[in-house]
Amino acid sequence: MHIMEGYLPWQWCVFWYLVSAPFIIYGIYLLNRQVKEHRETLSLLAVSGAFIFLLSSLKMPSPVVGSCSHPTGTGLSTVLFGPFITCVLSVIVLIFQALFMAHGGITTLGANDFSMGIAGPLLGYVVYRVAKAVKLNIFVNIFLVAFVADLFTYVITAIELAAAFPATHGGFLISFETFFAIYAVTQIPLAIVEGLLIALVFKYIVQSRGDILVKLKVLTPEQATKITEGFK
Amino acid sequence: MIPRFFIKYKLEIIFIVFIVAFAALFLYEQNAQTQAKWEGSDDQGSAAIEATGYTPWIQPLWTPPSSEVESLLFSIQSGLGAFVIGYFFGFYRGKRDSAKPA
């Protein structure tokens, strides 16, 4: 989903910076408040950020399509801390990759954070709330959140590029098809792996720090006990 | 009755089965699609942009000199992430175990 340095006309760079900025600023505010008021959640915040670090560094082959891509890892922090804090954590990873690996870029940071840190996690969060409201099994819920956040990130990248580079014949839709085929189709198997992994990790978090999940209002105390008992 | 083991490790089993299926499918496809290059979708995206006649207007400040150096930096990124995850899960486990009466 990384748009490389210089691969987006400067007008679009400015545009995506302006779109992303309010989310990042509000995210930094929420992050500060979270750390100050609920210091005990800091370790899970670090683990969530570490998952974005870890998963977004793994370039995996995508069977069927014959190319490689990487997961985003944003599902866990979307569920635990919401989309705004996730957007700040993603910026950190994106800056790291832009500066040290020339993967992504500083001019394209706004566009890349919009796809990976904002649009993906926001839609993932909507899925999370809806699935919670209909009382879907929490592990299935988390799988869906991570899957959607990952896949939708790549759909947004395709939209961003199609908007910046509409085809001379056929315009936006034709070039969207091209970029969609490159980014989103490759991503489907990887998004499934990511969803399964995040759901598995969630089990370990419930088992070790169910109390924090209760504090973060992800689970009720009864649910936490029930899940722990269910895996004995 | 389903043995306890399958209940306790249900999610692990699902994950491992899927990963094995994923790897098997990849190996099969690797042989079937001889023309596939398995290159990064990000690079394909950049190539598709260049195909429209566009040239990047700015270069990265620093680019890794080779793919070896690049994979080193990606490994450092994974290592940092894995270190933090392992550190806190170990910390939680130790805390839980020491809270239990000996």
Present the secondary structure layout.
The complex is a heterodimer of chains A (232) and B (102).
Chain A: H1 10-37, H2 42-55, E1 60-62, E2 67-69, H3 75-81, H4 83-100, H5 109-133, H6 138-164, H7 171-215, H8 221-230
Antiparallel strand pairs in A: 1-2
Chain B: H1 4-8, H2 10-32, H3 41-51, H4 67-99
Provide structural commentary.
- The complex is a heterodimer of chains A (232) and B (102).
- Chain A has a single domain (10-220), classed as Orthogonal Bundle (Arp2/3 complex 21 kDa subunit ARPC3).
- Helix content of chain A is 75%, strand content 3%.
- Chain A has a two-stranded antiparallel ribbon with strand order 1-2.
- In chain A, helix 3 packs across helix 6 and helix 7 packs across helix 8 (221-230).
- Chain A has 232 residues and is mainly α.
- The model of chain A has no long low-confidence stretch (mean pLDDT 95).
- Chain A starts with 9 loop residues before the first helix and ends with a helix.
- Chain A has helices spanning 10-37, 42-55, 75-81, 83-100, 109-133, 138-164, 171-215, 221-230; strands at 60-62, 67-69.
- Chain B is an all-alpha fold.
- Among the domains of chain B are: 1-33; 67-102.
- The two termini of chain B are 33 Å apart.
- The model of chain B has no long low-confidence stretch (mean pLDDT 92).
- Classes of the chains: A mainly alpha (232), B mainly alpha (102).
Biggest sheet record of chain A: 2 strands, antiparallel
Q: Which percent band covers the strand fraction of chain A?
A: under 5%
Portion of residues in beta strands of chain B equals under 5%
The tally of beta strands of chain A, per DSSP, is 2
Largest sheet of chain B: none
Task: Tell me the series of helices and strands of chain A, N- to C-terminal.
Answer: HHEEHHHHHH
Give the termini distance of chain B in whole angstroms. 33 Å
Any guess at the CATH architecture of chain A?
Orthogonal Bundle
Q: Segments of chain B where pLDDT lies below 50 for 5+ residues?
A: none
How confident overall, as mean pLDDT of chain A?
95
Q: Give the largest chain-chain interface (CB within 8 Å).
A: A-B, 71 and 58 residues
Q: Note the overall shape of chain A.
A: globular
Number of domains of chain A: 1
User: Helical stretch count of chain A?
Assistant: 8
**Uncertain spans of chain A:** none
